Amino acid sequence: MANTGIHPELRSVARFTPRKLIYPWTLPVLRRLSGLQRPKNDGIEVLTLESGVGIRLHRPAGATTTTPGLLWIHGGGYVLGTAAQDDVLCRRFAKELGITVAAVDYRLAPEHPYPAPLEDCYTALEWLARLPGVDPDRIAIGGASAGGGLCAALALLARDRDGVKPAFQLLVYPMLDDRSVGQHLDDPGQRLWNATSNKFGWQAYLGGADPEVAVPARRSDLAGLPPAWLGVGTLDLFHDEDLDYAQRLKAAGVPCEVHVVPGAFHGFDGIAAKADISQEFFRSQCDSLRQNFQGVKQ
User: In angstroms, what CA-CA distances link 175 with 8, 33, 148, 200, 225?
Assistant: First the structure.
């Protein structure tokens, strides 16, 4: 492999990881393959809310008191994926932090464009805040990739509505800007997601919506949002837009911890979960969540 700046711990898996995965002609195939997978539901409560929104609920073992909660939003470019794909991750959060994690199965674009996926996430957030055993004042929201984009949009929506107010937002290489401005649009070190996939995902999600309203990075007022953790690799398509969003959060008075991983491509922590840099990426998220939950009055 030519020198692409990929981190040494990721070079072997990078050889077998495609530069792009989702585009119009692969989406039907990927969805069919996803449908063939039957998740294991051991220890997981699989629920369907009255609205039709699906929830996979991960409770901490042996909890006898009220716990913080995390609403987790899966990735997939707004067009693919299910809550079950992150079962292992959600169990890790629940075990490591002793919290209740609710992973939401939101409707997917292009069949269900904005605002349907976001409204599903908001419905799930309201449900989690009412769940017995969960402290409504210590609820975080989080997601990876498109899930991170929905998390950022949900933080904005929750701020603008007189309802549940998340205490924290966990933005894992979030998909924030349909314009994809930056220096990394054609980087040979990219994997899984490139500018072609990004254009397709955003077009499917936005439909006929006004991007000035629907796209988090286009929103001008970021004041009053919950504190954030944002992590991204230097070879990720979203690197520049993510760091720009983090700077704008800070400028608006929103605390934001930034974790940049040198030589890491999009989704690296899922592809190479056992790598030291992936383990550190997860620990950083847990540390930030733990500090936030401890800092909120119980």
Answer: 25, 24, 6, 13, 18
Q: Could you tell me if 234 and 264 are in contact, meaning their C-beta atoms sit under 8 angstroms apart?
A: yes
- Model pLDDT, residue 197: 86
Comparing CA positions, the residue from 70, 207, 208, 62 lying closest to residue 140 is 70
Active site residue 184: no
Per-residue model confidence (pLDDT) at position 7: 85
Q: Is position 266 annotated as part of the catalytic site?
A: yes
Sorted by sequence, the CB contacts under 8 Å of residue 236 that are 6+ apart come out as 173, 184, 190, 193, 242, 264, 265, 266
Token pair 């899966």 is at which residue? Answer: 74
State the pTM of this model: 0.92
Q: Does residue 34 carry a catalytic annotation?
A: no
DSSP letter for each residue of 96-117? HHT-EEEEEE---TTTS-TTHH
What residue ranges do the domains of the chain occupy? Answer: 8-290
Q: Indicate which residue of 105, 145, 184, 187 is catalytic.
A: 145
Q: Which CATH number fits domain 8-290: 3.40.50.10540, 3.40.50.1820, 1.10.10.10, 3.40.50.720?
A: 3.40.50.1820
Which residue of the set 236, 240, 242, 269 is catalytic? 236
Tens of pLDDT, residues 162-174:
889 999 999 999 9
Q: Dihedrals φ, ψ of 278, to 5°? A: -70, -40
Residues of the chain predicted below pLDDT 70: 1-4, 13-14, 16-18, 22, 35-37, 181-192, 297-298
Q: Active site residue: 7, 184, 259, 266, which one?
A: 266
* Among candidate residues 291, 270, 293, 298, the one with its CA nearest the CA of residue 70: 293
Q: What is the pLDDT of residues 218-261, one digit of tens each?
A: 999 999 999 999 999 999 999 999 999 999 999 999 999 999 99
